[in-house]
């Protein structure tokens, strides 16, 4: 059959390199065509069994076909595996909640991936600091989590927080979110209230007994 074999493709720095094995017969050249949307096609002629595709759109999934030419006759086109011109971590990370609870804060976030050229996230880092201070704190969270608890914060203090997603192809950060801690730790207040109520109840029982 008049078709190439062993076709391979790889991408680096926005350039796709395609290689293949020549078919049997007296081949005069090859036509390589590529598209990212199925409507707009680009093509080039090659006289070798490899070529580089340049000036591609970033973060687009390409379909590439190589067709051998035999002195005026064309063979059968062979498609390469689909390949992204570039890959990246998901395009957007956004904080959905930064809820203070006394001197703690619950932070939740989500990610938005566009297209098929988003790579996996390795982990998240939650950065936070007091609004009027430059000292930055952080905690790491594994890639499956979308929540974190910031502890031991100063009471009645304004904070800023943002989340960074890290991956093999780069990092991306959310916008900052602001929150203000409360004067007292709500957990301690609740526990104290319960203890006080129990104490009053016991005193009442003792008083009745007397």
Based on the model shown, name its key terms:
six-stranded antiparallel beta sheet; rod-shaped; mainly beta; 17 strands; 210 residues; five-stranded antiparallel beta sheet
Which helices and strands occur, and which strands form pairs?
Layout: E1 5-12, E2 15-21, E3 29-35, E4 41-46, E5 50-53, E6 61-70, E7 73-74, E8 78-79, E9 83-84, E10 92-101, E11 104-112, E12 123-130, E13 137-142, E14 147-150, E15 158-167, E16 170-173, E17 177-180, H1 186-209
Antiparallel strand pairs: 1-2, 2-5, 3-4, 3-6, 6-7, 6-8, 6-9, 10-11, 11-14, 12-13, 12-15, 15-16, 15-17
Written description of the protein model:
By secondary structure, the chain is mainly beta.
Strand content: over 45%
Instruction: Assign the structural class, choosing from mainly alpha, mainly beta, alpha/beta, alpha+beta, or little secondary structure.
Output: mainly beta
- Major sheet: 6 strands, antiparallel
By DSSP (H or I, 4+ residues per run), the number of helices equals 1
Helix and strand succession? EEEEEEEEEEEEEEEEEH
Gross morphology? rod-shaped
Q: Percent range for helical residues? A: 10-25%
Number of strands: 17
Mean pLDDT: 89
Short characterization:
The chain is 11% helix and 49% strand.
